[in-house]
Amino acid sequence: MNKYFLILLLLGISIPAAAQLGEQKNNLSFGFNGGVNNNQVSFLPNIKQKGYMAYTGGVTARYISEKYFAMICGVQLELNYSQRGWEEKIEDNANTYSRTMNYLEVPFLAHLAFGKEKGTQFFVNAGPQIAFLLNEKEHYSSDWDASKRPNGINYQYGKMADNRFDYGLVGGAGFEIKTGVGNFLLEGRYYLGLSDFYTNNKANINNFEKSSNSTLSARLTYLFDISK
C-alpha cells in the first residue's frame, strides 16, 4: 500500500500547482461543515451489509488563487470528525450487528468552480485524504450469537482495528451560493479507502485479505471570507 500513499502525496502537490495559469486571486475563506455519511466496508471474504448512516462535521479553510476564463481555481483543507463503520445484513435470524468507527480526517482538496464570482457556482473537489481512528464500538442485539452466522465469517466480532491510520482518495461536486452574509455550499462526496484497518495476513485463515472504508456523504458548508 505504500505506493498508493506516494501517489496521494503527489496528487496533493501537483493538482493545485497545475492550476497556476490565470489571473491571480487572493481569496481566503474559513467556515464549518456538517452532514451525514453512508459507509460500507469492502471486506474480503465478503460480508453482506446495509449502508451505515452516521455523522460527519468539522472546519473548512479554502484559498482561491486564480481565475482562468470561467474557471476559478484554489485549494481546500478540512479537519473533520467522521463516523464510519458498518451494519451487517443478517437474514437468517433476528440478530443485529453494527460497529461505529470514529475518525479524525484531513482531506487535501483541489477546488475548481465554474460560474460567476457573485451568485451561484458549480464546483468540484478532489484529492487525497488521510485519517486516524480515534475509537470504535460494537453494537449487537441482546440475543446475539456469532456462531449462527451461515457463512462462517465471524472473526470480526470482538476484533478491534489493527491499523488506525487510514488513507484514500476523495472527490465531490456541488453548488455554492454566495450571499452578503457568507457562502453556502451543498456537496455530494465519495471516499475510496486504499488502506485496510485489519492486518492482511493470508497465512492466517481467520483474517481478512481486505477491509477498507467506502463512504458516500452529503454535506453542507458555510464559509465567510477573510480576505478577497
Descriptive account of the structure:
It is a single chain. The protein has 228 residues and is mainly beta. The chain has one domain: Porin (Beta Barrel). The chain has one helix at residues 2-18, and strands at residues 23-44, 49-50, 52-68, 71-88, 97-115, 120-140, 165-179, 182-193, 210-227. It has an 8-stranded antiparallel β-barrel. The chain has 1 helix and 9 strands, in the order αβββββββββ.
Helix/strand order, N-terminal first: HEEEEEEEEE
Strand percent estimate: over 45%
Reported CATH architecture:
Beta Barrel
> Domains counted in the coordinates: how many?
1
Major β-sheet profile: 8 strands, antiparallel, barrel
Query: Helix segment count?
Result: 1
The third-level CATH topology is: Porin
Radius of gyration: 20 Å
Poorly predicted segments: none
End-to-end separation in angstroms reads 40 Å
Arithmetic mean of pLDDT:
87
Question: What is the tally of beta strands?
Answer: 9
What percentage of residues falls in helices of 4 or more residues? under 10%
Protein name: Outer membrane protein beta-barrel domain-containing protein
Keywords: Signal
Pfam families: OMP_b-brl_2 (PF13568)
InterPro entries: Beta-barrel_OMP_2 (IPR025665)
Can you lay out the helices and strands and say which pair or pack?
Blueprint: H1 2-18, E1 23-44, E2 49-50, E3 52-68, E4 71-88, E5 97-115, E6 120-140, E7 165-179, E8 182-193, E9 210-227
Antiparallel strand pairs: 1-3, 1-9, 2-4, 3-4, 4-5, 5-6, 6-7, 7-8, 8-9
